[in-house]
What we know:
The structure is a homodimer of 367-residue chains. Chain A is of the alpha/beta class and 367 residues long. Chain A folds into two domains: 5-108, Alpha-Beta Plaits, CATH 3.30.70.150; 115-363, Alpha-Beta Barrel (TIM Barrel), CATH 3.20.20. The first copy, chain A, is built from 15 helices and twelve strands. Chain A has helices at residues 18-28, 41-46, 77-85, 103-108, 115-123, 142-154, 174-192, 206-218, 228-231, 233-242, 262-273, 291-302, 324-331, 341-344, 350-363, and strands spanning 5-12, 50-58, 61-68, 94-100, 130-135, 159-162, 197-199, 223-226, 247-250, 277-281, 312-316, 336-338. In chain A, α6 runs parallel beside α7, α6 (142-154) crosses α15 (350-363) and α11 (262-273) packs parallel to α12 (291-302). The longest helix of chain A is centred in the middle third of the chain and has 19 residues, at 174-192. Chain A is elongated, with a radius of gyration of 22 Å. At the A-B interface, α2, α3, α8, α9 and α10 of A face α2, α3, α8, α9 and α10 of B.
Amino acid sequence: MSARIIATYHVTADAASIEARARGIAVEQSVEMPVEGIDDPVVLNGIVGRVDEIREITPGRYRVRIGLATETVGGDAGQLFNMLFGNTSIQEGVDLADADLPDAILAAHPGPNIGTPGLRARTGAHGRALTCGALKPQGLPPEGLASLAGRMAAGGIDLIKDDHGLADQPYSPFTHRVDRIAEALDQVAARSGKRTLYIPSLSGNLDAMRGQIRHAISRGVDAFLIAPIVAGIPTFATLVREFPACAFMTHPTLSGIARIAPPLFYGKLFRLLGADAVVYPNHGGRFGYSTATCLELAENCRADWAGKLPCLPTPAGGMTTARIPEMLDFYGADTILLIGGALLATRERLTREVAAFAAAVAAHRYS
Amino acid sequence: MSARIIATYHVTADAASIEARARGIAVEQSVEMPVEGIDDPVVLNGIVGRVDEIREITPGRYRVRIGLATETVGGDAGQLFNMLFGNTSIQEGVDLADADLPDAILAAHPGPNIGTPGLRARTGAHGRALTCGALKPQGLPPEGLASLAGRMAAGGIDLIKDDHGLADQPYSPFTHRVDRIAEALDQVAARSGKRTLYIPSLSGNLDAMRGQIRHAISRGVDAFLIAPIVAGIPTFATLVREFPACAFMTHPTLSGIARIAPPLFYGKLFRLLGADAVVYPNHGGRFGYSTATCLELAENCRADWAGKLPCLPTPAGGMTTARIPEMLDFYGADTILLIGGALLATRERLTREVAAFAAAVAAHRYS
């Protein structure tokens, strides 16, 4: 038998029940039936989940490490999530805290296509954080979004992403939107020499997304925003492999509230499946992640890991220009600073505000 | 502007902050930027989410109804979930309780392909609940699973589903598994005249699932288990449309803990996208749903609704034969009773236990 996946859960229980609870998770995430009903020794020894450790971490809260058979997952991206947390995600009082993945699983997934070095090369941003704006509100026609994109590019921003709510709506169809925005960015690049990287949002099923990517590539656009939980994890993993020259930025929408620890979810699993940049809710914004969670997530994005390229943490969610120095001190240079609504809300001062944003990021002394 | 989607959230807040919180959700689920930064009147009037009602339901807990623009969703299944709960799913203290969908959204999705009448016709089960067993543990080779299937079929069970952990693993590849199990069920049918409906589990990406379905159809198997949150919501919706003669049973794995109220999630949204049967955790089993939640979910599956076929609630998760009368009294005839591990744990008595299960369900007096 090959090495096991070691999944770490945090479980609320009392001392009298934690052993049974741990065995219950080990069964739920493997054979999902009473072990006494199994007589095949290969299944009993090789497939049934194994409780490796139970340790109380705070009163009434336990760390439980469970060895899951690598064979139950294979190379399937969806099955990796299914076996790590599937049915257990519907149970109370248990979170998936971490996972140590054996070589066979790591080798089955590509990691980022271009990662941090690729995004730096494509934007010419070296030795500093990357700057990113967002195109919204949805409801604007492509021409309105293209005008915003052009004005942000004129301020020298590195990246512009679609709002994750922009799909293929009649008021802003994907192809028309990409054409207008690519045009606007080309025009700025012709004047300034700096080409802002545009990251349109993919939507629909796998075939629709393939079509969107092909159209975008034909317009020189080769980076994409994808929400793996909306699109489907296997769809995300498939696109990364089919378009190895493209970059993918993941969005956390619909992924629920931290039942899978964000450092694992975004920093490890999304990176493993191919995220070049991972958007997540920064501490102190509209969402509830702690500073420790954010730091661990960012470290997971950047760590040396199984030969996979590093990817860029992209803290977001109500960020403002006032927070630039603090965020850069906290996150350092290998980060994308994404400021969405707060820049757009400056209206006619948009280009100047973006220029100030870019200047602050460039002038920051990274420790 | 067309009629809006009315999304109902349950929000934890105090009286002083609930109005701001409600406006925050309305913005988060629509334009996701400061409204004061928007000057386009079409966006302000037609796209920005609208707070329709705030009502305290218990001290410190509010019902908030928000009108979301139908245009932001269109006919895209993934976008429906994204706009109903996307970013809000990452925030603390807020659940998606319900959604009233306007005609344009309802008309964009097909509902079940064959629904309750189709599943009754294909199994010959009329005027009573349907019986369902599960194939596990994973790790067994196809021949072992086929032997279990044959023995359950010999007991007269209506449906046999794969464990949701069965994917396309080397120890039990999909095509080989379907071939062996279809063979075993054919043999029983040749003796008994009753053909048990087999529901294999789909895995991988959209293309892989298409291939699995085509192979199964070639073997006379035309009902499938799919986990929409693992597979991807658009993948599920696509398969329902592409294979209109097939039935789909949904599995809730990885869908998290009730942040989207289960009666809405499974009883409405999965049905709307095409579930003919929806598996969910029954009250009193290994999971935490209340009896009220289970009853409302089942009622949503069966309600007259926009001309969509009704689908069959499939309560599961640690069910035993001892609970049959109680569950039938609770759920009535339009239900699938799924007993998985508890049947398999009877080992050499499996066929007799299944026969007793089938007899109890047939003999029950449905009120």
